[in-house]
Fold this protein.
Amino acid sequence: MVDTMPSYIGRSVVRREDNRLLKGAGTFVGDMKLEGMVHVAIVRSQQAHARINSVDLEAARNADGVVLALAGAELKDVLPPISGMQVAAPKGWRDGMDPHIEIPDQTLVPYDKLRYVGEPYALVVAGDRYMAEDAAELIEGDFEPLPPVANAEVALDAEALVHDHLPGNIAATLHAKKGDGEAALATAPHRLKRRYFHHRYAAMPMECRGVVAEYDSRTDSITVWSSTQVVHWVRREVANALGMPEDRVRVVAPDVGGGFGGKGHVYPEDILIAYLAKRLGRPVKWLEDRHEHLLNAAHSRDNLFDIEVGYDDDGRISVVKNYFLVDSGAYSPVGAAIAGNSIAHFMGPYDIPHYEADCKVMMTNRTPNAPYRGAGRPEVAFAMERSIDLIANELGLDPAEVRFRNMIQPEQMPYAVGLPYRDGVMIEYDSGDYPEALRKALDGIGGLDAFRARQKEALADGRYLGLGLGCYVEGTGIGPFEGATVKIDSSGKVMVATGACPQGQGHETAFAQVAADIWNVDIDDVVVTLADTSHVTMGYGTIASRSAVTASGAIKDSSDKVKEKVFAIAANVLEASESDLELRGGSVGVIGVPEMSMTLKEVARAALPGWIHQRPEGIEAGLEGTAYYEPPTVTWAYAANAAILEIDAQTGVVKIENYVEVHDAGTLINPGIADGQVKGGLVQGIGGGLFEELSYDEHGQLMTGSFMDYLLPTASDVPPINVIHTETPSPRNSFGFKGLGEGGAIAPPVVIANAVCDALKSFGAEINSTPVRAEQILNILDAGVAAAE
Amino acid sequence: MGVIAVAGLTRITGWVFDVVSELQKRANPVKPPLLDILAPSSLAEALSLLSEHGDAAMPLAGGQSLVPLLNFRLSRPDILVDLNRIANLAYIKDVGDQIAIGAMTRERAIEESDLVRQVSPLLQEATTQIAHLPIRSRGTIGGSLANADPAAEYPAVVLALECEIVVQSVRGERRIKAADFFEDILTTALAPDELLTEITVPKAPVGSGSAFVEIARRHGDYALAGVAAQITFANGAPTDVRLAVCGAGTTASRLTVAEEIIQRYGVGAEAIKAASDAAAASVDPMSDLHASADYRRRLAGVMTSQAVEKAAQRAGVRS
């Protein structure tokens, strides 16, 4: 055995989960088969807004293989709605955001009216899914169409109300201020006023959602397997709905094929399937198909901004006024969280003295809107970064230069923003060098001057090259807490369980690296258990770029508790002083005396309860510790993006030649995983920038219910991407970690829009909405040609 | 925009629905309805099944369009006649001045065929642009032609190459000119009891050049516009010009005005521009989520000029 282990943190350790995932040996909800299992088909609204007069289940009940068919009315007094959909809002946040929040409860299966295309109103349970689908077809609903509230903009003045108790269709308003925006605007030498629209698209994980539940009458307990990012939240809601103690509800997320936020809250099906399993006494399975997913899994983005910016002759921004509407659809599964993020992140890496934000979260007859990778940040990055380019144009400056002039300088760190974060703490950017990130990004595309020269030459040949920039900061590792339990049993293995719920991002490997370093053991001696409520009493889950920071913190804190015992017991056995002991390669030994040591296995045996234990007085039996890490506040990751693209003047098609992101997430646990995470995010951002769009018509009918029309980027749409990682450790945790799950997805839409406008500068191009489409680009070219003639 | 969506679906083909049919009123589940699958092992058996069951039966070739339609329950045959076990319907044969391709020949086999590459480079090039490799590995030329998706590649190719489509039924064999085969969106001259069994492709003449170009929002999607060009030259001048477009009307179609312009004025820049404009003016595309009719029309023109230029270059007429 080696004496000490090399540090695992910082190494691209091969992902241990890939052994099963790459062999097709993973277990997803869809793979689960339980004895006697029955299958659910859900009948969903095809209308955006309609009163339910009646639902006729008779024919379905008589169909082959049907176990149960029911509609909302039957559940009305049985299952409560999903309540408390506003995540806890701490006082500091309420003080700074002036929130008025009335997020409506979501009835699991509506009995009075339907509020979006895809909302469930009936379901069938049958022997297999085919029979369930056959019977579902026989269900006839009598619906009275209501005028639809088609989008956020019309919602304010619409006569129709999505929820009768929400006048103006407003579910929440937020208002935040820093300095004096009004006065600053009045005195600003220049003002820019623009409307920006960031369109609706969604997480679109490879694996759709799915739930299997099995009830055990002997112990009156239920196990729910759900493709979710938040097992503990699902457990709480299931326990609440079924009137069971949480301890009798076990929720497991088996292998999950992507989540990206779309699986980051509790859905009606999580509870319904559990209810059906208990009611029927049989295992019940519901697997969401892609069509259902497009209709019913949370959508995201869909914000409309009216922005005013005040700036001086040098391009220095003194004030931003940010008025925006969030089209939250028919419900808001995480309350006003996205809107809060948008307000807090608007100013990004820039030093802006005055700011005012006003937001309305609007209810419309669309699919509910919930966080998706970026969660309110891509939207505001679009508004801010477009504004900077427009200011640069107005002043005849390079967009890069305007960014440098406005950026927070490294010597200003930590930088107080003057707004509260969602955790109630006043925002203070913790560390980083934002201008350096932008310089590196420009170097990454071959240098600004070199590009401008090339661009000019190309233009002379009738070719349109553009450079797009986009910078952002991102609060990561948010609380309120994460839980972890660490144990060492007689096998000597270090067993780690946390509330983190991975969806493919390599947590089993990353947390094994963290624990191996904490314990100075071989990584193969670390056993990691995730996404299972039976292993951690309280947990929070994997959303909001938080697990690297929060789960690592919890693993460390719980390990510290166990270490105290390990050292006390080892000191007792080795007859040494605790302060002379060290962890080395799976053992505890006396510093400087190699032969005086005992293995963790021996310590674990010495820690056992019973007659033969070797614990000193006052040390309780067992090596087990649980801790709940409550981060002081968030850590601040940041990035600078630069991309070069070319426009085909005949077709308007955009070809991204090179995309560079300089990304700083503090100390990296596993650079290979980090690189994959950022790149994956960038591809999703490029998808949102160019391809992905959830379109509705004026009746609130979704137009993109299959992958024929919802266009995900495929491998051949991915340009060359270069991610340059810098590592500025966060001072807010002992590891220096910051979160990085979401970052990549934030900038591409605005980077693409900026690059297209840069390429077509001579045409006065302004693209202030997403997605950027070839047809729109061709129209700009045509208009420019027409003007020239 | 004349697009109608039902429960979020606007299309399951390369073309949007133009009517809300009885079938589409349902909840669009994604599992096929109950049906019988009959798997004949000979052509004769298949033809007699189709004759027996008429409209109630649908032939299943590669399934790349039909299976999604079944899963969305937009198509509800009582019976599927699975053609995949009929041994002698997949072949590529050299028959004098033509090649004969069996209807069940996989697109991938056509793409990889040396014979096709040599004698019908247009067919080969178009095949490489069909969707994605897994789809080409299952999809068949007969299935694609019988499906008659207006945005698919093969209908434009067989029009440009003036292929013959061989169909059989218990009543006998018919040979249908490509020009007479495509009648409307997803509608062909095939009777319910008839099966498309073979396509005969004239070999490209000496001195000819060809090109298939298309544009889609993403690689592998149905084309917003695509053009097949097959041009024969003599002494640098076009003697036979065949241009066909897909994605820009209810069926693929020949671009006759553009053909005449090239035929008469050659492949100089001005003539190509004029042909491109004529092509754009002659098509009648539809707006959908991905492109307006105007943009598609524009693209039909751009694809025409690109196809003509490439075909001419390949014939050694333009540099």
Observations:
- Chain B has a mean pLDDT of 91.
- The interface with chain A takes residues 3, 5-12, 26-34, 72-73, 132, 215, 217-221, 289-292, 295, 298-299, 302 of chain B (CB under 8 Å).
- Residues 47 and 170 of chain B are 6 Å apart (CA to CA).
- The longest strand of chain B covers residues 225-234.
